[in-house]
Amino acid sequence: MAFVISWTKALNTDNLHHVYSAACSEKTIMHSLTKFIIATAFLTTSINAVAIEKPKYDVLHADDKIEYRLYEGYVVAETTVTDKNSYGQAATSGFMRLFDYISGENVSKSAIDMTAPVQQTPLTELEGEKIAMTSPVQQSKNDLGWSVAFMLPSKFNIDTAPIPSNENISLREIPPRLMAVIRYSGRWTQTNFDEQSALLKSAIQKQGIEIISAAESAVYNPPFMPPFMRRNEVMFEVGGHPGDNLSTIENK
After folding, report:
1. Pick from 126, 90, 97, 131: which is nearest to 215 by CA?
2. Which of 47, 83, 95, 153 has a CA-to-CA distance to 117 between 20 and 30 Å?
């Protein structure tokens, strides 16, 4: 399942108070702790599995640390987190909500295989920009919250995917799209996200390529993976790539 979020920092032991700050009883705390342990164990097993599914893509152009990837379409389970103040808190809240969904909290009570990565996107002005889909979107500051998403296994389409029981989770089709991606290791923090987003955005703009979406983050590893071994990515949807004489993905 794809992880577009900064759950790596959020799930560290030192930050568990973010998960349990809303708990008001020992029973609630123990229930949350049990879910957290199960989710972490599930993640470890799934992420280390040889056959774990990830989004399919072709690399159309590579330039130093940046790749321009044409992704195939897929379906995501998505939730919006608006009551948290940081990447970590939003990541934890969104991840646990989606983990419940793939663990059977859906109408058919089906268990769904985990995929990688987990994806997270700042909402900022995304809602207004989604209508036009032509203008660059500011991705740094945001007051509206975060979108957190899991990619569903490719055996599902929008009609066959289990329907969420939680009204805060929705299913959405992601169409084929061209993404400029920068990959890096290290901790998943606001600082790293901002730095990598700025580097990627600058490189894209120097090529005169149109940025279509807000910055998205993709996290592939569990929080206890040594930072230097982690695979983290930041990406923008773009209208072309440096090796392409055409200006838009529709003309490819």
Report:
1. 126
2. 83
Q: Which residues pair with 217 in a beta bridge?
A: 120, 234
Over range 214-234, report the average pLDDT. Answer: 87
What's the topology of domain 7-251? Multidrug-efflux Transporter 1 Regulator Bmrr; Chain A (3.20.80)
Rounded CA-CA distance 6/87 in Å is: 6
Two tokens at 6?
């900064």
122-179: per-residue pLDDT in tens? Answer: 875 444 333 222 222 222 234 578 888 989 999 999 999 999 999 999 999 999 999 9
Burial 180-218 (b: 16+ CB within 10 A, else e): bbbeeeeebbeebbeebbeebbebbeeeebbbbbbbbbb
* Residue 82 near residue 147 (C-beta atoms within 8 A): no
Residue 5's pLDDT is 38
CA atoms within 13 A on the CB side of 158: 9
Q: Tell me if 241 sits within 8 A of 61, measured CB to CB.
A: yes
DSSP strands (E only) in 9-156: 57-63, 66-71, 74-81, 118-122, 146-151
Give the pair of three-digit tokens for residue 144.
């509206």
Q: How do the domains of the chain map onto residue ranges?
A: 7-251
Per-residue model confidence as pLDDT tens digits over 7-56: 333 344 334 344 334 434 445 445 554 555 445 544 544 444 345 788 99
Is the peptide bond preceding residue 117 cis, with omega within 30 degrees of 0? yes
